[in-house]
Amino acid sequence: MLLDILVDLCIKKNHKFIVDIMHELVRKDKNILLLFVGDGVLRNDVAAQVHSLGLDEKVRFLGLRKDVAALYNVMDVFLLPSWYEGLPVVSVEAQANGLPCIVSDKVSDECKLTSSLSFMSLEKNQQRNGQTKSSAKKECAILMRRKNWQRQDLTYGKKLVVSKNFTVGWQ
Fold this sequence. Notes:
This protein is an alpha/beta fold. The protein contains five helices and ten strands, in the order E-H-E-H-E-H-E-H-E-E-E-E-H-E-E.
């Protein structure tokens, strides 16, 4: 399984959460890889966390890329556990590519454009119906271990056509 996050490596993007989830996932499934696409001030801190958890072989830092569209095509799941966001364009792009997406519940509801996007709480413990749920990291790891991740076909068998006057539509 190929997990991916396309982000600026900064505090609001919550990379520690992703690396901790990866640590949980690798315990259960060795056939998994995490890609960080992007760069930022926390790159060295995130790399140090990856190293301290023994995940060097399971996490790749790809840096800034011009071939992001091609990377979406090799991903299996898109993650965005941000502490806060408005409307993250990467979530729109990932859904447009048909990727299953797991996004923090701190991200605006407007980013949910398809049924392939699931919101995940970042809270350590959540009260629901009088019961305390387990940690968000554990819940997300369980969700990620599902083997039935499938891309969503958003074309419905149609072709995207751009006309001479640059209008876009399906035929």
